[in-house]
Amino acid sequence: MQHILHTFSSDVSALERPEAFTYPFFYTPHALTEVASRELQERLETADIPHNFGLGKHEELLEQGKMFGVLVVEDAKGELTWLAAYSGKLEEGTLAGTFVPPICDIHDTQSFYKQGERELNAMSAEIVALEEDPERLAKIAAIQTRLDEVNELLRSGRADLKEAKKARQKYRESVRKTLPKEEFDAVCERLAKESIQGQLAFKHRSKEWVAEQAELEAELAKYDEEIIQAKHQRREKSNALQRKIFDNYVFLNARGEEKVLSACFPDFDLRHPPSGSGDCCAPKLLHYAFQNGLKPICMGEFWWGSAPDKEVRRHKFFYPACASRCRPILGHMLEGLHVEENPLLTLGQDQPLPVVYEDDDLVVVNKPAGLLSVPGVEIEDSALTRVKLMYPNATGAILLHRLDMSTSGLLMFTLNPKANKRMQRQFIKRQVQKTYIAEVQGIVAEDTGVISLPLAPDYYDLPRQMVCHQTGKPSETHYTVLSRKDGITRLALKPITGRTHQLRVHCAHPEGLGFPMVGDELYGVIGNRLHLHAQTLEFMHPTTKEMVRIHAEPEF
Fold this sequence. Notes:
Elements lengths: L5 E2 L23 H16 L19 E9 L5 E7 L25 H21 L1 H42 L5 H68 L1 E3 L5 E3 H4 L16 H11 L3 E10 L13 E2 L3 H11 L21 E4 L3 E6 L15 H8 L17 E7 L2 H12 L4 E9 L6 E5 L2 E3 L7 E3 L8 E10 L2 E8 L6 H7 L23 E9 L6 E5 L5
Helix pairs in contact: 2-4, 3-4, 6-7
C-alpha cells in the first residue's frame, strides 16, 4: 500500500477540504483534486510506460489515449494522501505499483478467467479441426454427391410424368374432332390407363429413392449435429465464465457492504452489463479506499493522450464518470458517503420562464439554461410542465421541439391540434429556420463554413454522442464568426439537421471546429453554464400564413 498511497509533493495545508464528496457525474474539480492530478500528470510525462498515448513515445504500438483518475483520501491519522487509477488495462512500466489494483484481475495469467479462456480456445480449436477434418469432409462430400443424384432422379421422374401428361393431352385434343365418338372414347380410356400405369411405375421406383433420400439426409444431419453440439458446449462454457466474472467483481461501499456486478444492473437478466464495467477509474479508486480504511475526500478523472477517432476527448481535460458503466455501480458504492447534491436537480428551478411571443395558436418562451424541455426521470420541473400550467386550455400535443437542458433560448409550443399539425409539418420539412449563438474556447480561423459529420450515440456513455463514419446519421451545421476576443470565438450557428448534441459535437470534435463550447461539461470544461443559446426562430404562421421572426439575446 505504501507505493500506491501517494504523499502530496506540494504544500496543500492551506487548501480547505470540501464539505462533501465529489458528485462524479457533474463536477468542477476541487483544488485538492487539481493538485493530485497535476502531480500524477508530472509522473506520466517522465515515466516509461509501454503504451502509445499519442504523445511521441512507443509509436510502434497502437495509438490510444486513456482516462486516468485521482482520489484524495484521508488516512487514520487524518493526513491527506491520494490514489491513482487508470481505466481498463495498462502495462505500467516504470510506474508499476503506482496505481490501485483492479477489483477483479482477470488478466492475471493464473486467474480463473485466463484458465477459462484457455479452455475456450482449446474448444474453438477442436471445432475448427472437426470442421476441417479431411476424412469427415470426404464422407460428407460423398453423401452429398449421392443425395444430389437421388434428388435428380426424383426430379427427372416427376418431369417425365408431366411431359407424358402434356403429350396425352395434346394427342387427345388433336383427335377430338377427327374420330367418331366411340373411337375417341376408346382413345381416352387408353390414355387414362397409360397415366395410371405411369404414376404407379414412378411411385414404385421413387419409393426406394425417397427412402434413400431420408437416410442420406439423416447421415448429413449427424455430421451437422456433431458441430452444433460442440458449439453449444462452448457457448455454455463461455456464458458460465462470463457469469463467474460478474460474480467476482465485488464492490464495497462506504458502509462496508458488498455488491456483485450483476446485482448493480437491474436488467441484468435481459442485458449483460456493458463491456468494461467495473474497470473504470472511479470504482477502482473507491473500492481500494474502502478496502483499506481510507476516507474519500474528493476525486476527478482526466484524459491523457490523443483522442479516439469517434469521441471528443482532450488531453488533460477533466471528464465526469461514464453513465452507462459507472452510474449503476457508483450508486451502490457512494451509499453511506456524504456526497455533493446533483446540481442538475435544482439548476433551473428558481429561474423564470419568460414568454416572448403568444397568440391564439402559438407560445414561444425563452428557456433558461439548466431547465429541462420535458420532465426527466428524476426532475419533474420543465418548460413543458410550466407551459401546461400557464395555458391550461391548450389541447393536443403542444411541444414542437426540444433544447438540451444546458442550452438556453427560444422554445415553441402550440395551443391547439390544428396549429400543432401545421407547425410540425414545417419542422419536419426543415422550413423553420433556427439560429443559435455560441462561444467556443479557441480562435476559429475561417469566417464562415459548413460542418458535416455522421453522429451516433455513445451507448457506453449516454447522453454523449460520437462521430462514427460507419453507423452515424448525417448532420450539417452552417457557421459564421461574429467576433474573436481573448481566445474566445463567438459564432452564429444554423443547424440544417437536428441530431442530439449536434452543435456541441460539431464545435468540439477535431473533424469539426476542434474547439469545445465554453462551459460544456460533456465535451469541454465545465463552467457556470453552457454558452449556447437558441437566438432566433423564423417560420410561417400556421393560421395567418405570414412570416414570423422571433428573437431573444443570450445572457453571455
